[in-house]
Specification:
A hairpin with a 5-residue loop joins strand 4 (49-52) and strand 5 (58-67). The chain has one helix and ten strands. The protein is mainly beta. It has one domain (2-143). The chain has one helix at 2-17; strands at 25-26, 33-36, 42-44, 49-52, 58-67, 82-89, 95-101, 108-111, 114-122, 137-143.
Length: 145
């Protein structure tokens, strides 16, 4: 019985530590452009834009509308989710804003003949330490399905 009580208390604290959203933070200002290769992971910071080598496809990291990932210094019942907002521009010049997730769907999106996937979000959260938007790094991969 005592063990069950400790587990219930730990679960309560863990759940409380995992539910702190970042209240839809977004980037503004000029963006840096980088050329990236297909089938390779690449990192983008908020405000940065990447263009796929040999194409007109671009991906821009706009913001982090949600970050409920479990802090590294807490034991959580659920891993939580990090969501990133991206703007894609396809080969026709059409712009689309999408939100990709670390654990929930969608984790990827199609743009023209390519698939854009979110493969990671850094840094890992720590309890009681909000992450400034400028510190986020989205790891993405673009493939041809």
């Amino acid at each position: 019985m005592r063990t069950l009580t400790y587990v219930a208390i730990a679960a309560t604290f863990a759940a409380a530590g995992c539910t702190t959203p970042n209240n839809a933070i977004t980037a503004s200002g000029p963006s840096a452009s980088d050329v990236v290769n297909i089938d390779r992971d690449f990192d983008l910071k908020p405000g940065q834009t990447a263009r796929v080598d040999g194409t007109a496809l671009t991906v821009s990291f706009v913001g982090v509308p949600e970050d409920s990932r479990c802090p590294t210094d807490v034991v959580c019942v659920w891993a939580g989710n990090g969501a990133v907002s991206l703007t894609t521009t396809d080969d026709t010049g059409a712009k689309t804003t999408v939100v990709l997730n670390t654990t929930l769907s969608p984790r990827s999106v199609r743009s023209s003949a390519y698939e854009i996937s979110l493969t990671g979000l850094k840094p890992a959260p720590k309890q009681g330490s909000p992450i400034p938007l400028a510190d986020y790094v989205a790891t993405l991969r673009i493939t041809r399905p």
